[in-house]
């Protein structure tokens, strides 16, 4: 079904201010290739939403009215394009000389039951846009050479952007795919938007009907990870609860007030960590999830893990079970205490602890863990300590002495071992 526009709007000028020139040039080229095959090709979705929000888009999605393989053959044979194997959902990754694109055949969807994966079938652009999650993501840019840059907005997505609302395209949207609610929550936080009237009614019905219980645990967990990665975890999870979604995560059905305070501290600590230790990777979602699990019962968190079909990493689980942290007194003992902890575990421990704990953990991570002994096993053997348990014990004692600030170089290490009776002059 063609889309008729009373007043066509070209967005090329606006796009030139935000999009790389290579993207625009390649869009023109791909549009020409599709037109030669009498096919329609469109740039769709989030990149257009971001354009109208004044943001640089990251999701470069193309929708084709036509056969994918027929479109690909000249690109691959004549112009050096590559392509990944198409998925069952009529999508593939198109690998151009300069840019990569997510290419899909325009399609419709039908859901055999609520929360199931859809069955897809070839369709036109109007149908393809109608199956999307929100009207703000149901816009397209025509790439045909005669209409290049024309905005197609049949469901008034631009108006929703101006009104700052997230509205669904039909009343079964959330029932078909309840993960759209979680994506909507992320959009509401990122773009400061509220649910539209129909979206709110649909969400309330999904929650009343228990549709989330029909959703695959692995699909649910993937969406929850995206949510837990957002930069302000307290704000994200407070809105999560306000939307009635608390049962989907540990500790949020009836949150402990201390949880909100700890989440606020965790957010500050994560920002400080990334600034102080940019070379040390940090999985922010694992830190937030550990904090939630600390405030939940063992039965509750195990139930969630089983539903998600997720087995926590051994080190992460060890940290969780060691909370709240309580390092011993001396610098060496504290260093040995912190040494097996993950960055995520340390930050959660600090979010739950006091300033004394923070000083201990930061001293270990910033200084002690980077210390290298001025001697090794070979040097100790040259000094007369035989290989075996005595050698290992000597190295361990030297490490403690270094952490306690008692030795700094080989000379001090030799003198320290002598005073301890482990070496004889």
Provide keyphrases for this structure.
cca-adding enzyme, domain 2; elongated; seven-stranded mixed beta sheet; alpha+beta; Beta Polymerase, domain 2; disordered N terminus; 425 residues; 9% strand
Principal-axis shape:
elongated
Nearest-integer average pLDDT:
93
SS summary, helix count: 21
So what's the CATH class of the largest domain?
A: Alpha Beta
Give the tally of β-strands. Answer: 11
How many structural domains does the protein architecture include? 3
Computed over alpha carbons, the radius of gyration is 29 Å
Low-confidence stretches: 1-7
CATH topology of the largest domain: Beta Polymerase, domain 2
Strand order of the largest sheet: 3-4-5-2-1-8-9
Mind summarizing the main beta sheet? 7 strands, mixed
Proportion in β-strands = 5-15%
Return the CATH architecture of the largest domain: 2-Layer Sandwich
For the record, give the distance between the C-alpha atoms at the N and C termini, rounded to a whole number: 95 Å
- Look at the structure and name the CATH superfamily of the largest domain: Beta Polymerase, domain 2
The assigned structural class equals alpha+beta
Question: Helicity level, as a percent range?
Answer: 40-55%
């Amino acid at each position: 079904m063609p889309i008729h526009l009373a007043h066509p709007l070209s967005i090329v000028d606006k796009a030139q201010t935000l999009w790389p020139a290579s993207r625009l040039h390649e869009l023109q080229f791909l549009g020409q290739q599709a037109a030669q095959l009498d096919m329609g090709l469109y740039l769709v979705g989030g990149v257009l939403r971001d354009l109208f929000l004044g943001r640089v888009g990251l999701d470069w999605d193309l929708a084709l009215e036509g056969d994918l393989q027929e479109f690909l053959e000249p690109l691959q044979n004549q112009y050096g394009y590559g392509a990944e194997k198409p998925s069952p959902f009529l999508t593939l990754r198109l690998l151009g000389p300069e840019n990569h694109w997510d290419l899909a055949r325009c399609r419709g969807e039908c859901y055999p039951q609520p929360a199931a994966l859809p069955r897809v079938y070839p369709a036109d652009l109007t149908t393809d846009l109608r199956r999307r999650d929100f009207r703000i993501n149901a816009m397209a840019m025509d790439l045909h050479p005669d209409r290049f840059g024309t905005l197609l907005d049949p469901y008034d997505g631009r108006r929703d952007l101006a009104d700052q609302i997230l509205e669904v395209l039909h009343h079964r949207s959330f029932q078909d795919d309840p993960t759209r609610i979680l994506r909507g929550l992320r959009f509401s936080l990122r773009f400061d938007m509220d649910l539209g009237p129909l979206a709110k009614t649909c969400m309330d019905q999904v929650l009343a009907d228990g549709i989330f219980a029909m959703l695959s645990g692995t699909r649910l967990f993937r969406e929850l990870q995206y949510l837990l990665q957002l930069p302000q975890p307290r704000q994200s999870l407070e809105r999560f609860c306000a939307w009635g979604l608390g049962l989907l995560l540990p500790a949020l059905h009836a949150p402990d007030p201390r949880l909100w305070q700890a989440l606020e501290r965790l957010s500050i600590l994560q920002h400080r960590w990334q600034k102080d230790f940019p070379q040390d990777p940090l999985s922010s979602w694992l830190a937030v999830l550990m904090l939630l699990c600390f405030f939940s019962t063992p039965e509750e968190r195990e139930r969630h893990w089983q539903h998600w079909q997720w087995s926590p990493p051994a080190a992460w689980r060890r940290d969780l079970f060691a909370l709240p942290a309580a390092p011993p007194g001396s610098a060496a003992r504290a260093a040995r205490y912190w040494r097996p902890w993950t960055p995520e575990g340390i930050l959660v421990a600090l979010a739950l602890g006091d300033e004394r704990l923070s000083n201990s953990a930061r001293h270990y991570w910033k200084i002690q863990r980077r210390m290298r002994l001025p001697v090794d096993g070979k040097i100790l053997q040259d000094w007369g300590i035989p290989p075996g348990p005595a050698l290992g014990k000597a190295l361990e004692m030297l490490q403690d002495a270094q952490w306690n600030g008692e030795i700094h170089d080989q000379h001090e290490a030799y003198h320290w071992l002598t005073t301890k009776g482990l070496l004889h002059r």
